[in-house]
Amino acid sequence: NPERLNEYYLKALKIREEIQDTAGIGNCYIGLGRIYNKQKKFQKAFDVLTKAVEILKNGVGNENSLALANMDLGGTYLALGDTAKCFACEYEAVRIRQKIKAGWYIFISQFTIAQMFAGIHQYDSVKVYLDMFENNKDSTYEVPKDWLNSLYSRYYSGIGEHDKAILFAKKILMAKFQIH
């Protein structure tokens, strides 16, 4: 229930403000932004996520939360139709996560960008990310093949190679239902 969640975050925000917990305040704004985005209240989401970025960028140890705030703000910009600002926020999230050497979370940020490119039909960019994921050199995590199958399916469908898209879609279904 989004209204109840919203109420929860507002109560938590009040407490975090009283105890001057900047990381907690920033994370409450991220939670509120996610609720507003789900409700398609994009201007409200933009407002609280912008506050989250401002609060979190001044704190020490808030880097991963700052990356999350940037990713969510990027998604809000995309929903508002501003792809330039969307990708600026998404790339900032990657830079933050690279700085703190958060391998798996770097991948999550990059995968989100690749999905966004697929969503706006920029398939050359999707291919760049697919190649990067296939040649992952970070030994701290393994790229989930089923995630790549999903992205390959979208990629091949988008460039008109429907037989290949169907092949990757079948791999997804086979993995989901454990069919061999």
Summarize the structure.
With 180 residues, this protein is mainly alpha-helical. It is 78% helix and 0% strand. It has helices at 2-18, 22-38, 42-56, 63-79, 83-99, 103-119, 123-134, 145-158, 162-176.
Main attributes of the structure:
78% helix, mainly alpha, 180 residues, 9 helices, globular
Structure overview:
- The protein is an all-alpha fold and 180 residues long.
- 78% of the residues lie in helices and 0% in strands.
- The protein contains nine helices and no strands.
- It has helices at residues 2-18, 22-38, 42-56, 63-79, 83-99, 103-119, 123-134, 145-158, 162-176.
- The longest helix is centred in the N-terminal third of the chain and has 17 residues, at 2-18.
- The protein is globular.
- The N and C termini lie far apart (39 Å).
- 33% of the residues are buried.
Topology, element by element:
Blueprint: H1 2-18, H2 22-38, H3 42-56, H4 63-79, H5 83-99, H6 103-119, H7 123-134, H8 145-158, H9 162-176
Helix pairs in contact: 1-2, 2-3, 2-4, 3-4, 4-5, 5-6, 6-7, 7-8, 8-9
Give the low-pLDDT segments. none
Major beta sheet summary:
none
Shape: globular
Query: Average pLDDT value?
Result: 92
Order of helices and strands: HHHHHHHHH
Strand content: under 5%
Q: Using the CA coordinates, give the radius of gyration.
A: 18 Å
Termini separation comes to 39 Å
Question: How does the helix and strand content classify structurally?
Answer: mainly alpha
Number of helices: 9
Share of residues in helices: over 70%
Number of strands: 0
